[in-house]
Every structure is written in structure tokens, then in C-alpha cells.
Design goal:
two-stranded antiparallel sheet, 45% helix, alpha+beta, 3-stranded antiparallel β-sheet, 14 helices, globular
């Protein structure tokens, strides 16, 4: 277990980084309940909800928690970041079924006891069974990448050597289980122990792995990490069309439909891969033209509402691109989404579509963001406000 370090956010600040950092700190402290490791619940009920849907009520998505750990380090709150980091390391080291070092897409929110971290679930009264979600039980390649980035950020903050070993264990799972000739595949989907491979390739996932593997190579000098970073980068290069990035591939390996756009895919490649071609930054202009809505950004360009998490990502992207004015304008946009808990809502309107499916076996789009307080949106806002690049652990001048 990592040892706590001093420092914390400015909890008296009502807006900006102080508000975001304070909201993350409050969530960690309250849900850890004095334990040394915690997974933070990803969503809170919206203002018109008495509770969360059963499938979300106990869910702490690993991506959201990895972001929260990174953001807390950016806030200077290493002690609380460690509490989430301890949960992530426990997940890498111990699983209820598998022994190969994978992490799940979600874990049960709250303080961790002994043994493998529990997965989310609920009692289905109609079927009289304990129910779980096959996507949450699965293992996404991108989520593995973000977990590694969180572990390496914590290593940078604490010097704890075991974090490198945990990050390498997870990266070795990626290279052994989801690598293909074209790039890194999507991961695994389904219930234990018969999860099935996801055969499409995500540009975003490969960006995550490229950044994580490159960071590991800088720390260890091990060739296998340099090779993984290069392998992922080659797919990202393939996905670039000249002014924007494609989503990835279809399950058969052919490139995705050019009409399927996603904001993060336009921002993350050049935020994460600093020595990428200068033309990659044209994707920011593409996003401003095709994915902006009102004073923020949509997820997929259908104009159905502001996606708060993505708008925070865009604020940080503009900061990296040297446009502090636009970055600041987007930070002001985020403030309108702040809730009484301090968390930001995931959306400004009731629902924002993505055009994607949560279940990779389902071809119909069923992935939506709703107007609920969201851990990831708040973490990205903290990263934007503190000017912290989560892909390399550096603060932007």
C-alpha cells in the first residue's frame, strides 16, 4: 500500500480548480470511510432522481477512477490520490476469476476489504438472481491504458517502485492478449470465465496504450514497451485522414464509417503523442467546425447537447495548443454544470447521444450520457483547470 503524502486542494475556492479538486477530495474521503483503498462511484443521482438505475448504483468505472487519481495528483492531493491508487493496484494484483493481471471495466464502489475487489451488481427481484452487467465485467484495452497512466502518475508523485511493477503487469496483459497485426484490439466482453474477444480496434484505445507504453519505456528502458508504443502509434497514424481521426475499425478490420465521429479521438492523439506530425493538430480545427455546439462541445457532432467531459478535454487541448483564451472560455462553460455536491453534470441537457453501443455485440447505438453528477467530467475539469496533461504527467506552462 502506498504511503500518504501531504497537500490538498483549496477547499475554500467556489469555482475553478479549487471547486473541482474539493469535489474529488470530498467524494474520496466520504466513500473511503476511513479505509486505505477506495473505488469512487462514477455517478450520483440527477436532480430529478431519487436514486440511480440498478446498473449504475454500485458502479465505479475504472476509467473514471484512474482519471480521479491523476486529477488529485494534479490538485496536489497525493494522499487522497493514493486511496484510489491503492484500489487500482489491488485490482491489478488480484481478481476474483483471472490471474493474468487484467483490470475490469468497473468495480463495486466503496472501501475495499481484503481479497479481490468486488464487481458491481444488484439483486434482480423479478428473476431472483444476483445480476451483473457483462460490459462492466469485461476488460477494455483503453481502460487498461488509463489505469497504467494513473499508476505511473502516482509513481511520479510518490516514488513508490511497486507501482511500476503493477503498471508493467497490466501492460504485459495488453500485449499478450489484445495485440493484433493492425493494432491493439478492443479487449474482452462478457461474464466470467467466458468473456469473448472484442475484434474491433479503437483509435482512442491505441492512443492510451501508446502514451502508457512510452512512459513505461522512459522509466524502464525495456524494449518491449517501446515496441508496444510504436505498434499502437502506427494504428493512430493509419486512422488520420488528413484533417481528422477516424474512430477505428469495424470488427472485420476495415476502417470505421467516416461519418462516425467522436470528440476525444480528435483531441487525444496529439495531446498524448507530442512528436506526432504537426498536421494532427488540424483535428482541433475539425472538432471546432464539426463537433462544437453552443459554448461547448458535443460527443459526436449530432448537435444534441453539450458533453461536459469532452468540453473539459477541449479546454485542456486548447491550452496545450497555446490558445489560453479559448481554454478559459470553455472552463467558464463548465461552471454552469456544477451541482450542489461539487461534481459537474455529465451533460447540460437531459441526454447526449454518442452513436456508439455499450454492448459490443449490439449494433444499435445504446450509449448515452445523462444529466447526472459525473466523476470523470469533474476529473477532466480539474485537469483542465490545473493545466495537467494526464498522458505524460506534466503541467502545461
Amino acid at each position: 500500500m502506498m504511503t500518504p503524502a501531504a497537500a490538498g486542494p483549496n477547499e475554500d475556492t467556489a469555482s475553478g480548480p479549487g471547486a473541482d479538486c474539493a469535489a474529488l477530495a470530498k467524494a474520496v474521503t466520504s466513500q473511503a470511510a476511513g479505509a486505505g483503498a477506495v473505488f469512487v462511484r462514477s455517478y450520483e443521482p440527477g436532480e430529478d432522481e431519487s436514486g440511480l438505475p440498478a446498473g449504475l448504483a454500485t458502479s465505479a468505472f475504472v476509467y473514471d477512477n484512474a482519471l480521479a487519481a491523476i486529477a488529485l495528483v494534479a490538485c496536489g492531493d497525493v494522499s487522497r490520490a493514493n486511496l484510489v491508487g491503492n484500489a487500482l493496484t489491488r485490482a491489478v494484483r488480484r481478481d476474483r476469476t483471472f490471474t493474468d493481471g487484467r483490470v475490469r471495466n468497473a468495480y463495486r464502489a466503496g472501501p475495499l476489504g481484503e481479497g479481490a475487489p468486488a464487481l458491481p451488481g444488484w439483486w434482480d427481484e423479478d428473476k431472483k438472481i444476483w445480476a451483473e452487467d457483462p460490459t462492466q465485467d469485461g476488460s477494455s484495452t483503453g481502460n487498461a491504458g488509463w489505469t497504467i497512466l494513473a499508476l505511473l502518475t502516482l509513481h511520479q508523485a510518490t516514488g513508490e517502485a511497486s507501482l511500476i511493477a503493477d503498471a508493467e503487469r497490466l501492460m504485459d496483459w495488453v500485449t499478450a492478449n489484445v495485440s493484433s497485426d493492425a493494432g491493439f484490439l478492443g479487449g474482452f466482453h462478457g461474464y466470467d470465465p467466458h468473456s469473448v474477444p472484442i475484434t474491433w480496434i479503437s483509435t482512442e484505445h491505441n492512443v492510451d496504450i501508446c502514451a502508457a507504453a512510452a512512459w513505461l519505456y522512459r522509466l524502464t528502458g525495456k524494449v518491449r514497451h517501446a515496441e508496444a508504443a510504436l505498434h499502437a502509434r502506427r494504428f493512430v497514424e493509419r486512422a488520420f485522414t488528413g484533417d481528422h481521426f477516424l474512430l477505428g475499425t469495424k470488427p472485420d478490420g476495415t476502417l470505421a464509417d467516416p461519418s462516425m465521429l467522436a470528440l476525444d479521438v480528435q483531441l487525444w492523439p496529439w495531446m498524448a503523442i507530442a512528436d506526432g506530425p504537426a498536421e494532427w493538430r488540424d483535428a482541433l480545427k475539425f472538432a471546432a467546425t464539426h463537433l462544437s455546439v453552443g459554448d461547448g462541445f458535443d460527443f459526436n457532432g449530432d448537435g444534441d447537447g453539450v458533453w461536459i467531459e469532452g468540453t473539459a478535454q477541449a479546454s485542456l487541448a486548447y491550452r496545450i495548443a497555446g490558445d489560453s483564451v479559448k481554454s478559459g472560455q470553455l472552463l467558464k462553460t463548465l461552471e454552469a454544470a456544477r451541482t450542489t455536491s461539487g461534481f459537474l453534470n455529465a451533460t447540460r441537457t437531459a441526454r447526449v447521444s454518442t452513436g456508439l453501443s455499450i454492448d459490443p455485440t449490439n449494433t444499435a447505438p445504446d450509449f448515452f450520457y445523462f444529466k447526472r453528477p459525473h466523476l470523470a467530467a469533474t476529473a477532466w475539469a480539474a485537469l483542465a483547470a490545473t493545466r495537467w496533461n494526464p498522458f505524460n504527467g506534466k503541467r502545461i506552462d
